Amino acid sequence: MNLRRLTLIAAGIVIIWQVVVWLTGVPPYILPGPLRVARAAAIHWESLITHALTTLAEIIVGLLVGTALGTISALGMIASRSLKRWLLPVLVISQAIPVFTLAPLLVIWLGYGMGSKVAMAVLIIYFPVTAAFFDGLRSTEPEWLELTNVMNASPLAVIKHIRIPAALPSFASGLRVATAVAPIGAVVGEWVGSSQGLGFYMLHANARMQIDAMFAALAVLAVLALGLYFAIDKIMTKMIYWQKIEEEEE
Amino acid sequence: MTGNHISSDQSASPSIFLENVNFSYKGEDLFQSLDFKVEGGLWTCFIGPSGVGKSTFLRLISGSIQEGFTGSIRFENRKTGKGLTAWMAQKDLLLPWLSVVDNVCLGARLRGEITGEIREKAVMLIQGVGLGDYIRSLPSELSGGMRQRVALLRTFMEDRPVILMDEPFSALDALTRLKLQDIAADLVKGATVLMVTHDPLEALRLGHRIHVMNGKPATLSKPLIPPGNPPRKPGERTIISLQADLLNLLEAEGSP
């Protein structure tokens, strides 16, 4: 995905949207056109930015904590067979519970502030990060392991020098998924109970029938999520420098 | 090429004794009470049809196969084979995220023994095989032949008295293969080398001893001992006629 194509797609969507509004004459309190939304964004930009910063902070802290926990879990499972035997079923069971249903509980436990939203984001990204990284760690090329075994490498050295770098591409795809879903966690948390953030703002605007402001918040959220995704994607591509070269050669 | 030989002292390169070795895989007996001696300090080639167990034979000696076999594999004057062998496979197994020099030093890095001296030695070796311009390159920037040269140096850097090679040059084109055989012969002189190959010419160029491996369970033929010292020239008349003999032998044993 490159940025130019993305801009074109966004422009296409906006044009179609405007045309649909014109053709159907749908009232603005049901579906406001993009022009109207832009006007609302221009009016409310100060509060939009304040709320966006709150949501962004929740997402980033959630990503950091979730990624750290996922990385540690995956490494633990590859280093210790008994940890793997206990943790793996827990991971699978945790996925059987829709995390959104936990949101009201989290708000009760952790309050209206940032804590419950971060926890929500962590819950939602922990699994993709852990699963992807663990999968990468355990599917190391067996012939590499055979070679390093003949070289008398310790298991720890093999994890550090072979398994972790070899698992980075899988880790990166896990992290990309996590980055894409983390905003959902934060916003759902805000819907259930909060006094700040884009999710809160949207609920508020919705309740007051300010549909154009709601759409403006939605657009800000989309830009936020995309920006974050591309930033992470860029960092990952830098980190896995050897793959870039391989792709360029193709 | 400079004379970077492992050791001219042949007693440092042990003979290997296999006694009453049995191994079966998925219900098939690959080896049954196999007795065999690998001569120390010589290059021994194993040639035979696919699936006969040549690679398994090497893996038993490298210690990669720990389970499912009985019998004894003994290294002359040593208690264990651990730390005695170096391994080279058909795939170069270079780590794509490490530079050429770091790949060559992989063993030392993994054992936490990496020093400036080791890196310097690696750089010298890399220059010696004509890859001086690629010391900091990543493997993806190299051709297949260049990559296999790096793999050869990595094997040699291990400085082990026993070197196990599983069809190391079979993925290369004919000319590159000949060049790499020369480099290999120079580098590992004096070590106990076991090499599996499909290529009769390769065996005849490099082997002090050549054994044909055949059958289920596999048996090893009496050694064929080509005249002269490796690396022999591919055009030598004796080599060409021996190649025909070896092909005949393979064909005869391949069709029971």
Q: Care to describe what's here?
A:
The complex is a heterodimer of chains A (250) and B (256). By secondary structure, chain A is mainly α. Chain A has a single domain (32-97, 108-249), classed as MetI-like (MetI-like fold, Orthogonal Bundle). In chain A, 85% of the residues lie in helices and 0% in strands. In chain A, helix 5 packs antiparallel against helix 7 (155-192). Chain A is elongated. Chain A starts with a helix and ends with a helix. The mean pLDDT of chain A is 91. Chain B is an alpha/beta fold. Chain B has a domain at 13-84 and 195-256: P-loop containing nucleotide triphosphate hydrolases (Rossmann fold), CATH 3.40.50. In chain B, helix 6 (174-187) links the parallel strand 6 (162-166) and strand 7. In chain B, helix 7 crosses helix 8 (237-254). Residues 1-10 of chain B have low confidence and may be disordered. The chains are: A mainly alpha (250), B alpha/beta (256). Chains A and B meet through helix 6, helix 7 and helix 10 of A and strand 5 and helix 3 of B.
